[in-house]
Specification:
The chain is built from seven helices and 15 strands. It is an alpha+beta fold.
């Protein structure tokens, strides 16, 4: 990596994601409960979401005080450097609340609106995924030991593809997503529902999934994972010709992406 700014941002993202992951893993209280709700009574925030975001924003303010920040739990500042951090301090809060292992810390950096660094820390796997724009995607820890470059899987036919998705916490949106999944299931090898968009995108990058789609994501849900998936050779987008966004996010190996996106378009899996 020849750009010293990218090196600096990646090092900071790795450091702070690791710190937040350790806080969440080691500091989870036995009596953890819901601190607040968001879009619906089942869309929850815990005290640990809030604590992890405070840790991350404090660290970034100390090291790069002129950068902007956008965080899931309310952190928002414009900054003056042209760099903005997009953070999800705990992606997979419901899993975390219930003691399930599929949750992550997601930290991304944008320059003038373009994603340039992404880190996803998955503490219960002991794995860290990271990418720099133009530098490929990598993982370390867990199954990856000291480190490995990631590549998405060679594309199978769509009817042999393993695809993950997620469901919204608003009841009518969730019902529509269930209708889409009902039609998709017989046309795929199978569908998985992990509960963390960041991890699903990294699993596409790592070849653990052939594809992933979800309606209703926020910038912090996908910023780091989208970059990691693309740097591993996956294609990402929304409706045909559009980048991944809150209307629809699709990520898959080339050869799976195109028919999956077309089928999702046919089924109206997106929203404006």
């Amino acid at each position: 990596m020849t750009d010293p700014l990218l090196s600096e941002l990646l090092d900071l993202a790795l450091d702070v994601a690791g710190r937040a992951g350790a806080l969440l893993r080691d500091g989870r209280p036995a009596d953890l409960g819901v601190a607040a709700t968001k879009s619906s009574p089942v869309d929850v925030v815990t005290e640990m979401d809030i604590a992890a975001e405070k840790l991350i924003t404090g660290f970034l303010a100390e090291h790069r005080p002129n950068d902007g920040v956008l965080g899931e739990e309310g952190a928002s500042s414009e900054g003056s450097s042209g760099i903005r951090w997009v953070i999800d301090p705990l992606d997979g809060t419901v899993n975390y609340l219930y003691g399930l292992p599929t949750w992550a810390v997601s930290v991304a950096a944008e320059r003038e609106g373009e994603r340039i660094v992404g880190v996803v820390e998955v503490p219960m796997r002991g794995e860290t995924y990271h990418a720099v724009l133009g530098g490929g995607a990598h993982a370390k820890g867990g199954a990856y030991g000291e480190g490995a470059r990631l590549r998405c899987r060679p594309a199978p036919p769509l009817d042999q593809a393993l695809v993950s998705t997620g469901f919204n916490y608003v009841a009518d949106v969730r019902a529509h997503q269930a209708d889409v999944a009902r039609v998709l299931i017989p046309r795929l090898r199978d569908i998985r529902r992990g509960g963390s968009a960041a991890i699903d995108l990294c699993d596409v990058a790592a070849g653990r999934l052939d594809g992933y789609y979800e309606r209703g994501l926020h910038p912090w849900d996908l910023a780091a994972g989208d970059l990691i998936a693309r740097e591993a050779g996956a294609l990402t987008g929304s409706r045909p010709g559009l980048p991944a966004d809150g209307g629809l996010t699709v990520a898959a190996a080339p050869g799976v992406f195109e028919p999956l996106q077309a089928l999702l378009e046919e089924l109206g899996a997106w929203h404006d």
